[in-house]
Structure formats: C-alpha cells, structure tokens
Amino acid sequence: MTFVAGVDSSTQSCKVTIRDAATGAVVREGRASHPDGTSVDPRHWWDALGAAIADAGGFDDVAAVAIAGQQHGMVALDADGRVVRDALLWNDVRSADAAAQMVEELGREAWVARTGLVPVASFTGTKLRWLRDAEPSNAGRVAAVALPHDWLSWRLRGYGPADESPLGPDLDTLATDGSDASGTAYWDPVRREYDGELFAAALGRGLRVAGGAAGDSDAVVVPRVVAPDEAMGSLDGDVELPGGTVARAGLVVGAGLGDNAGAALGLGLGPGDVAVSLGTSGTVFGVTDTEVTDPSGTVAGFADGTGSRLPIVTTLNAARVLEVVGGLLGVDHEELGALALQAPAGADGLVLVPYFVGERTPNRPDATASLVGMTPATTDRAHLARAAVEGMLCALADGLAAVEGTGVAVSRLLLIGGAARNEAVRVVASQVFGRDVELPEPGEYVAAGAARQAAWALTGSLPSWAVAATTIPSDPHPEVLERYRAAAA
After folding, report:
1. Measured between alpha carbons, how far is 393 from 431 in angstroms, rounded to an integer?
2. Are strands 252-254 and 257-258 parallel, antiparallel or unpaired?
3. Fewer CB within 10 Å, N or C, the chain?
4. What share of residues in the chain are helix, strand, coil (percent, to 5)?
C-alpha cells in the first residue's frame, strides 16, 4: 500500500490528510491552528504545517505530498529568502483603492481579456500596488513574490533563509500551479503565462520567472508554473520541520493548488458540477472546458487543478455570519440552526444583508451589514437566526446565478464546508437555491484534492476516488431571494 498526503493550509488552520494512493481511503489526519487576522507572518503557517504533520503521525511512510492553500496572499521575499513583511491575506481589503486605480487605468474588458478577472482588493496584484505606494522601502526590498502554498512548498523542499533551511534561499526554485497563479491578476489562464506589463503596473518593476533567463537585474522573481500532474521536485535529503518531525529524502512534492481548485479535485467535479463552499468566506465554483469571461468582474475565470477552467465567485461573509449572529445570541452553530428552524421561510420579512467585513462580491469593501424588516413580531431570536442563515445563502445564490450567467451549465449542485453540516443551512439551501442539493459526506475536501494530486504526480495517473453524498430535495421559496435582493440593492 502506497500512502500520499494532502495539506490544506487555510485561513484558519492547517489540515493534513494521509491516504491510500489507490483508493483514497483515509489512513490518518492531523491539524493545527493559524492565528487570526488579515495580515500574518508566514512563519505561523510553517510552524502549523510541522505541528499538523506531527499530529497526523509524521511522513515517514508517505511517498508524495501536495499543498493546497488559501489564494491570493502576498508573500514578499527579499534576496536572502526572508519575508519582507507580514503577508496580506485574501481578506485584507486595504488595497481596495489600489484595485480601483488599476481597473480605471486599464479598463474592465482589458483586464478580463488578459487575466480572466477584474481586480479587487483580494488579488495579489492589488496588494503589490498597495505595497509600492504605502511602503516603498519594503517594496524596494522585494526580490520574489510567492503565494501561501508556493512558499510552504518551497520551505518543505528545503529552501528558505540560510540559517533556517538546508538548501538556502534559492529563489529560482520557487514554483506554483495554474490555479493559484490565476488569482494574482498578472497571469493569463488562457495562454498560461505571466503578463509582465501587469506585474510592472502593480509593483513598478519587471518580473522574471523562476529558473528563466536573468534579464533585468531589478526584476522580481515569480514562481515557475508547473503542470497539474508535474512534481515541483523531490527531496534530496531529509528536511527538519517545526515541532521535531522530518520530511524524508525522496518525498515527492506535487504542484499544489489553490484551495477551491483543491476542493474541486477532492470532490471529483467535472463539467456541469458546481459547488457552494461555506467556510469563513463563501465560494461558488464549477469546472468547465470552455473559456469564461465576465467583464463585470463578478465571476473570475481561474484555471482549475486539471488543466480546465474554474469559474468562481467569492464572498467575504459566509460561516462568519453564523459566528457573529450566534455570538450575539449566545449560542453555537447547532443551537443557532435550531432557532432558525423555529421561524418560517423568509423570516416573516426580516432580511439580513451580511456584509460584516465589507464584501468582495459585490465589490463593496467598505460596506457594513444591515437588518431590514424589523417589527415587534420579527425582532426575536428565532427570526434573527433564520435571517442570518438566509442572508448567507442568498448572497451565494446570487453567485450561482452569476456563474450560470457566463454560460456555465449547472446539472449538479453540491454544498460543502463546515457550515453545510448545520440542519438549518441544509433546509434553507434547498429553498434559496430552488433545486436539489447534494451533500457530500463530511470531509476535508481541499486536503483530499491535494492528496489526489500528490498521487497523480507520484504515479503519472489521476486516481478516481469515490465520494459518497446524500440529496436534499428542492423546496423552492423564490420570495426569500427576491426580498434579499431588494434589501441588498
């Protein structure tokens, strides 16, 4: 039996799953927490990776690993391989003005044609523009720019600052994959190549692809983009990890991928399949073989983890909504769901527009949440709980409509993420989406997708791993979404 590992280095935590490469059966798992915040020292991710691997029983019997990670985060490195400043995460909106400037300079249509997206504060390129303007001394120190999964894979392969890693700061060994490069706003998922002009528009300097010709001495290194079935490399020697664990020589390190592409691979999505993921943020994403363009910027046309396309809509407020309202009511997620089911569909007109931390889709970084339709009859715990669940899912129903609006056919809708385990969320999903919803059995699908990719890199063949699911029958209540859209307009 051959074992492979998949890592999900998310906003909140690091999860490791070790699986049988042939069947996908889980052998053992581990996890460790990440600190809160939208600006984080990447060292915390490295420490958590070591702790999660240790919690999973180590990698001594693991033949290959791939890391999936939160997308867009700006990891800026100096010439010595040290992090220049805390990484700005996808949910850090301080670059909203920079994004608006970049859109105005080039125009929405040109951005979509060249990158498949319209810049918002989440994307790496806008964070580089912010760094250039707000912290010019730090911008001047940047020798390479990586994303979270790139940087962790680089460290796992033995690279980094000379006093912390056996192979030292060889920036020319940085590598990534197409799904994560898609979220930078300076990589074209159609031509599958970097756009140097857009990178220069962001940071004010040119780029050089890792391992490529030397070129301009002031150029900034960006990771080489490897194919989905290609390995970044394998370990020539043992690499000590934080917490005392060791990655052994010979370990194959796969290309890795962005978290949503990882979930798609873990679920085995194909054309016609769309997933709604309820994490801290919410995402709607599917797989298609055709090019996706949306000049409005609502749908980003990313690459997936197989060489196809991954149209995606992302909201900043998903399970976060349940946490905020549950905290207000003094209940956990399960109790909040029980309260929500005590109120009728539509919460008798009470509507929560859940922009607690601004919003990415629609692009309203400075927005706040609002509660509409308060009357003596609706101002109680049950109605507020119902409005919270409905508001979260209505925002994602708009995302689903946007994905369909690009021409993507939706024949199967899946609901995943921690919040999908809540009974009220399942009931409301069947009402708000107005179609059958498939609920895969609970699992770490981002990490599973990374493990599946690791098996692909190891064996040269993408394995088929079964995913069990139950179906929630459709129970349409279109009035719920109509009221939400009126309140959010």
Report:
1. 10
2. unpaired
3. C
4. 35, 25, 40
Please tell me which residue, 124 or 294, carries the higher pLDDT value: 124
Residue 397, phi then psi, degrees to nearest 5: -65, -35
- Known catalytic residue at 259: yes
Given 92, 195, 259, 294, which residue is catalytic?
A: 259
Residue 310's pLDDT band, with cuts at 50, 70 and 90, is very high
**Residue corresponding to tokens 């990374």:** 450
Q: What is the pLDDT of residues 254-305, one digit of tens each?
A: 999 999 999 999 999 999 999 999 988 899 999 998 888 888 888 999 999 9
SS (H, E, C) 206-265: CEEECCCCCCCCCCEEECEEECCCCEEEECCCCEECHHHCEECCCCEEECCEEHHHHHHH
Whether the pTM exceeds 0.85: the reply is yes
Q: Per residue in 225-234, pLDDT tens?
A: 999 999 999 9
| CA 334 – CA 422 distance, rounded (Å) | 6
CA distance 248 to 99: 43
